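Moderator note: this is an archived Q&A kept for reference. The question asked for a predicted structure of one protein chain; the sequence and the answer are reproduced below.
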Amino acid sequence: MISPSLTLPDARLLIAGRWVEGVGRRSALDKYRLQPCTTIHLPAREQVREAVAAADAEFRACVLTPHERGAILDRAAALLEQRSEELVRVLQIEVGFPASDGLGEVRRCVQTFRLSAEEARNLRGDMVPLEGAPQQTGRLGFTLRVPLGVVCAITPFNAPLNTVAHKVAPALAAGNAVVLKPSTHTPTAACMMAEALLAAGLPPRLLSVIHGGAEIAGWLLDEPLLRFFAFTGSTEVGAEIQRRAGLRRTQMELGSIAFTIVADDADLERALPKIVSAAYRKAGQVCTSIQLLLVQRGVLTPVQRRLSEMVGALPYGDPLDAKTVVGPVVSEAEARRIEQWIIDAVARGAQRVVGGARVGAVIPPTLLTGVDASMSIGCQEVFGPVMALQPYDTLDEAIARVNATPFGLATGLFTNRINDALRAARQLQVGGVHINETSSSRVDVMPYGGSKDSGFGREGPHHAVREMSEERMVTLLA
C-alpha cells in the first residue's frame, strides 16, 4: 500500500523474476514540493545483461497460449483497477497530475490492458490463395503471426502508466518478453504495473524493469538479444536510438508541435471547452497538447475573448488540492525554460493575454497572441501549459502553416464544412486528423503515431501487436 505521506517506496530493479537492489541510487522528486519522494535503484551493466538474458531465455522456454496471455492481461487490468486510488496518489506526487488527470490515466491504462487481452486472443494470420496461381493445385498457403523475442520499452515521464501500458501490454499479447526502462522522473507507476502483471500470473522472467538515464539506455542498445525498441520521447533521442538499433525493428513516437484549427463556421460552444482541456491538461505535457491555435480571422475576436476568460479561470498549483486543474511541469529547470520562452516571445512582440509569474515548477496557464515562427514557442515544442493564438484567412494558409513544421503527429480542425474537413484530412502531413475534435483527441483503440520528425509506427493495441510480431508464410502441399 502507498503511504498517505508524500514518500513512496523505493523503485527497485526487477531482474530474472526478483526485485533487487541496484549498485547506485538517485532520487525522484515530488514535482510540486520539489523534495525527494522516492529512491531509484540504478543497475550495474552486469545487471542489465542479466535482465536481458533472463528475458530471452524465458521467451524461448515459456510458451503461453493466446488464451493464457489474454487471461493474464485481463487479471492485471482488474488488479490495476483495484489499486486506482493508490495509483492516482502516486501520479499526483511523482508526476504532478491533479486527481482528474491521474484518474483518467489509470482508467485508460486499464482499458489498454483489456484491449491488449482481446488482441492476444484474436491474433491470427491470413489465408493466401495459392491455387489462384498457375500450377499450384492442391497447395494451401497461410500466414502465422509470431513474436519477435525480447521487446525493449523506453518510456517517458508525462504518461507513466498508460504510455507504458501501450508498449508492455501489446508486447506481451503478441507473445514477447519485455525489458522496460521507465523515466527516472516517474518510476513508481511502472513498478506497480509490473507488480500487477506478476500477481496476475505472468511468468516472472518474461518482464524486467531497469531504471536509469541515457547511459542505461545505451547499455540496452548494446544488447543484441533485444529485437524491438519501442520509444516515446524527443526526436533527437529517437534519432540516436534508431541509428544504434541498426536492422532491429523500432517504433518511434517523437516530438511535435500540435496545432488545432478553428474555422469561422465552427461551433464555438462545443469547441472552446475541448480546446482549453487539450491545451492545459497534464500541464500541457502531452505531445498533442495544443501549442498553436489557428483561428480564422472572422472569429478571432470572440475566440480570444472567451478563451481569455476560460484560461484565466483555471485553478493551478498543488496537485493534491482537489480544485487544481493545472499542476507543475516535470522539473523546475523545465519550468525556467518555459518561462524564458514566454519572456523572449513577449520581448519580441508577442502579447501575454493570460499568465503570470512562475512559482517553483508551476507555470500559470498562459495564453499568448502575436507569436510567429521565428520565436521558440512558434517553432519548437514547448511542452508546458502555454497556447498561442494565430489568425489565418484561408484553409490553404492554415494547412501550409501546419505542414511547414518538421513535425507531424496530429491536428484538430473545427468546422462544419465537409469539403474543407476532407481536404484537410488529405493534405495535412500528420499521423492523425481529428474533425471537430482537438489535436489531443485520442481513444486507445485507434492507431496513434506520427509522420516526418514525429516518428513512425503505430500505438494502439491492435496495431502495436502487429508491429511487435512478424508474419510467417506457411505452405502445405497435400
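Archived answer notes: The CA atoms of residues 338 and 382 lie 7 Å apart.
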